[in-house]
Amino acid sequence: MRTATTPVLGAARLNIHEYQAKQILAKFGVPVPEGEVASTPDEARSIADRYGGPVVVKAQVLVGGRGKAGGVKLARDRQEAYDRATDILGMSIKGITVRKVLVARAVDIKRELYLGAILDRASKAITLMASAEGGVEIEEVARVAPEKILRVQANPFLGLADYQARELAFALGIERTRVRDFVGIAKALYAAMIASDGSLFEINPLAVLGDGSIVALDAKLVLDDSALYRHPELEALRDTAEEEPAEVAARAAGLSYVRLSGNIGCVVNGAGLAMATMDVVKLHGGDPANFLDIGGGARADRVSAALRILFGDPQVRVVLFNIFGGITRCDEVASGIVSALREAGDSVAGVPIVVRLVGTNEAEGRRILADAGLIAVSGMDEAASAAVAALTKSTRQPGGIVR
Ligand code: GDP
Ligand code: MN
User: Fold this and answer.
1) CB of residue 31 inside a 6 A radius of ligand 1
2) pTM of this prediction?
3) Is it the case that residue 11 has pLDDT exceeding 50?
């Protein structure tokens, strides 16, 4: 069943920078222009110096539309490379400060195409998408002219077949003598997608140059967090400077946490129960501030870490615990709540806490809470409606989203 809060699970993922995604593509045989990363204008100038010709200076931030925002600039020589890097470094694109630029050899573009591999859950296959309308955001093409996006589904056992890649090449109007190159690129993209357990691997634009050759000018790779344990080399590329600080802290504490826009902080054990909790909160007219799964068998320290993260969010005005003790012991959770509250002190004095606690060691858990002046309820509905009602009792001022 699709519910109001279902899409949040898709938020657990890792994005890496363009230059890193291009390195992966290059390893699989996709031609990319030579380039290096600089974090100062001086470095940018010396890279341009080495290349000796025109370069393109590109902001390395994990957002799309850098070109439109002024984050991609052509430089004819070393001095211009220095000047453009000066402009772009430190600039803010969609709220993110640019700290690094890619300085790459500039190329002479004849056509800009789109080529992407997505994990299509509906067809349970990796789908290659291509469009002759490259360079612009594909979501925009999908919206105004969906017929301009071509799709082929790779067989999960056989992979992407040559004939499928050729079909795309012909539909894109690739020159006869370059079809073989295009097929090589499409198959390499597919192989890179499989090897990295990507959920999206996109080349936009895939450029046809003046001499007819085909190169990847931009690349975006989104990795599924659930597969990251198989890829320590990719996890190492995570740029925590661009992630939500609370999400970084949550990951360090072993919690799965996704921040949302509401004001009722939820602490739940189990992903399914966490989703259900958010739905029940919505049903009662409330708005969850987050998805948070503290996991099975969570001990007191993990519960405290969870509370610290929620209290750190200025939007949170009420905290709702929904604990079903199986492997997780209710007394451990209760101790965690009590110690986190003690530690937080006055800063959370005005935040009502609602606890639903059932299962293993429930009586002991309730006793620990009662000693600290907290009362646990046993029904989920009851807990959710109590949390929504408690909003009027919260003396914490509502805060906006801070980044
Ligand atoms: P995005 O705006 O974040 O998607 O960044 P892109 O890397 O896709 O660059 C945006 C646009 O800049 C591309 O669509 C190209 O038109 C242009 N561009 C990027 N690299 C080069 C290059 O090497 N040479 C030239 N002439 N244009 C480039
Ligand atoms: Mn692009």
Assistant:
1) no
2) 0.74
3) no
